[in-house]
Design goal:
7 helices
Length: about 190
């Protein structure tokens, strides 16, 4: 179970890197140095969670029960949710880099549906990770919805707003990654 959890943490980090890299502009991907995604993923996977005021217990060292519960969440569908979102972000980035507005709109609509599915899936059995996961999904939902309209109207302001929401979601996903890494490392 621990190895599945660790592999999933690495997948979350790569998803976060993909999300952060989706800036809806070809220049962003062409300007990135080789290995930039790996550097972002490594940073996301190794950044320790920051305790929140009054929330020290939520980021306490996990016990074996929590490790088993989170591993079960991963194995029973959490990994699928994360992989699906990663696929969506890859498709969205490809469409955005090609300036293909109809495909970008369809990719955003697929992201919106998959975020809804992830929101309906069981919560992560760790309060700190779940709080950040819910925040990430909420930001992704807002971004995907705005993106559908922006791509349909070829409206740069809406597309920029969507990108900002999605990148805000990535910030929360980075925190999920850090917490899951903390749990997996115990």
């Amino acid at each position: 179970m621990h190895s599945l959890l660790r592999r999933t943490v690495a997948g979350v980090a790569l998803t976060a890197a993909a999300v952060a890299g989706t800036a809806f502009a070809a220049s962003a991907s062409s300007a990135a140095p080789p290995g930039a995604a790996t550097t972002s993923a490594s940073r996301a996977a190794t950044t320790p969670p920051q305790p929140e005021p009054g929330g020290a217990a939520a980021t306490a060292t996990p016990n074996s029960t929590l490790v088993a519960e989170v591993a079960a969440w991963v194995a029973k569908g959490g990994k699928t949710q994360l992989t699906t979102l990663g696929t969506d972000f890859g498709a969205l980035e490809k469409a955005a880099n090609a300036a293909d507005m109809p495909t970008m709109g369809a990719s955003c609509d697929q992201l919106r549906r998959d975020v809804e599915s992830a929101q309906a899936y069981a919560p992560i059995p760790d309060a700190s990770a779940q709080r950040e996961w819910a925040a990430a999904l909420a930001a992704y939902a807002r971004g995907a919805t705005v993106c559908v309209g922006g791509a349909g109207a070829a409206n740069v302001e809406l597309i920029t707003q969507a990108a900002n929401e999605i990148m805000a979601g990535s910030t929360h996903l980075d925190k999920v990654t850090a917490r899951l890494n903390d749990i997996a490392g115990s």
